[in-house]
Amino acid sequence: MKKNKSPEVESTQSPSQLQAEIAELRRDVLQLQMENQDLENSLLTAIEHGDLIETELLELNKSLKSEVIERKMAQATLQSILEIVYRDKSDLEIMLATATEHGDTIEYEQYNRAVETMRQSEEQFRAIAESTSIAMLVSDIDTGLISYANTSAGAMLQKDACDLLNTSVTDLYYLETEWLELKDYFVTNQKVRDYEIRLNRGEQPPIWVLASLHLLWLKGKQVLLNTFYDVTLLKNTEIALRESESRLREQANLLEQRVEQRTHALKKAKESAEAASRSKAAFLANMSHELRTPLNAILGFAQLMLYDQELNAQHQADLQAICNSGNHLLTMINDILEMSKLEAGSVLLRLKECYLYDITATVREMLSLKAIEKNLELDVSIQPDVPQRIYTDEGKLRQVLINLMGNAIKFTNDGYVRLRISVEPDPHQSLDNALENVNTLLANSNSLCLHCAVEDTGVGIEESEIAKLFQPFVQTASGMRSQEGTGLGLSISYNYIKLMGGQMSVESRVNQGSVFQFYIPIQSLDDCVDYTIKPHSRIVGIEGKQKYRILVAEDMRFNRQLLARIIAPLGFELREVGNGEEVIALWRSWSPHLIWMDIRMPILDGYAATSEIRKIESSLNMSNSQKVKIIALTANLVDIQQEDLLLYGFDGLITKPFTEEQIFTQMSKLLNLKYIYDSTPFPS
């Protein structure tokens, strides 16, 4: 099913207002992008800083844990010795008590040895306890009173060891609730190892320790051995690490929120810019139609009047001036519209068979008058090995040559302008930035690299200006002095060559001249069918006796009259209508061979009318030879794509303003016409 073309949107804003609005939106988008990038950089910096802090803390944590392991081993060894010492003392005391109860006789020396052993064991215990850095306390199980405290215990708690004696061990704990939890754990398990808890330290902040509690026998009584290992530094490090992670997480969340806000703002700005861009496209489409439609009538009728032999030389010169000025205006309009399409990425490559010699001849004929007026030598040289038939984008190649040679003539006052064309065997070796799709298309035995160089002896270009030479709306100092052109020609040419898979460069010296050159990949063609009408003489009729019915569908009266004036003298049967409904009705009743269909018409536009005709033809099972040929007419170059026109059923496209050559060429291709010429020169 064919899709309906959406109606064109008309803009009420002026070009300057639209350009200012678009520029402002672009600045907003750029500012938001920069702020968004700053936020992302801040986030990355914060994360990297956090990772660095975390790495340092983890290394410190690892070091402290190693120290803890070493001290734990020392503590375990010490506790083993203490257990042996107290077990020996307990065994001796039990043995003495048991022997006394049974009335056994013990030698005095044996008793003294046992007492000495106990004394030595106690001395060994004290020596070991005083030499360790672990705080050691012995307390009563029932009352909790401390009966022994080593020097390390006093240092840890910032007291003298003797001041700890006869004080309750429970007073050492920072919080009663923590002590009760530790006590419950001890009652349940009968011992505690490495229990993390806090101890009081006077006026100083509490310290974190690993507490261990063991039951021991001392002088026939069971006591509690309390050992504490200071892990305050380790604990503070872990707390600092957690706090740092929390702060970093909060900062990351905050930055992510700001990034999200900026992204949302950027999205809104982008939507506004896109809306403005659509408004600009609608404006350009309308301007294209409004400017090119009357220009089509001006140039068309001026061209027809040039054939009037009754006009005197002055009138002929005046008409030629009108044509020249109109073509100059058309060139400027086309440049502005084409640059807009290039910026939007909507310019497509249109490869086809063409004649290189005809392209250069057309360029020379267009520019020769300007060269003669300035008394310049205009020379075109094509090397013998350059193929005559090539496969490339003819329109873009011709436009680039016109732009480069036209510029050369404009900025040259004495001397010459020369075009040199040669070929190289392999475009892949000459083009570093050739587009992949172009190279793939041209990758066969006939692939060549076309080299074109335009040399002049003009005013030259300052070295400082060369870097910005191919930017749009940029003119050199000499270009601004000339007050000609839009500053778009070189930019368009540069982008065309890039689109064609080639590259362009320039060499220049002030007051000595310039050389603009480019390379593009092409194919050499041995044979091609050419329907182009050669502009050497005027067409006055068609061969054969068949009468062709031609329908012109155009809502503008002047444009209908212009087409009729061009076509009618050749003997065609001609009818005219002003909207799509009339086209369909007349097609049903009159069966024209060809329809010139304007795209933009009231009631029913050209898209809808063409789609309806093709739908009816399909329902009647018409063959291709029976179907009417339909050529689209449009003054809009902004959003018209030839591929889209084919989907609607059009067979060709002519853009306004058009020439006799374009009209007759299209009719020749679609109706297979052969023309009759006279000797009257075709106007340039």
TrEMBL record:
Domain Histidine kinase, residue spans: 286-524
Record protein name field: Circadian input-output histidine kinase CikA
Gene Ontology cellular component terms for the protein in this record: membrane
InterPro entries the UniProt entry points to: CheY-like_superfamily, HATPase_C_sf, HATPase_dom, His_kinase_dom, HisK_dim/P_dom, HisK_dim/P_sf, PAS, PAS-like_dom_sf
Coiled-coil ranges per UniProt: 234-272
Xref: Gene3D superfamilies: 1.10.287.130, 3.40.50.2300, Histidine kinase-like ATPase, C-terminal domain, PAS domain
Keywords for the protein's UniProt record, in alphabetical order: ATP-binding, Coiled coil, Kinase, Membrane, Nucleotide-binding, Phosphoprotein, Transferase, Transmembrane, Transmembrane helix, Two-component regulatory system
Residue(s) carrying 4-aspartylphosphate: 598
Short name of any one Pfam family annotated for the protein: HisKA
Lineage summary: Bacteria, Bacillati, Cyanobacteriota, Cyanophyceae, Pseudanabaenales
Organism from which the protein derives: Pseudanabaena cinerea FACHB-1277
Compartments, as annotated in UniProt: Membrane
SMART domains in alphabetical order: HATPase_c (SM00387), HisKA (SM00388), PAS (SM00091), REC (SM00448)
EC category name: transferase
Ranges for domain Response regulatory: 549-671
Reactions catalysed: ATP + protein L-histidine = ADP + protein N-phospho-L-histidine
GO molecular function list: ATP binding; phosphorelay sensor kinase activity
UniProt entry tagged with the keyword Cell inner membrane: no
Protein EC: 2.7.13.3
Domain of life: Bacteria
Record family assignment: In the N-terminal section; belongs to the phytochrome family.
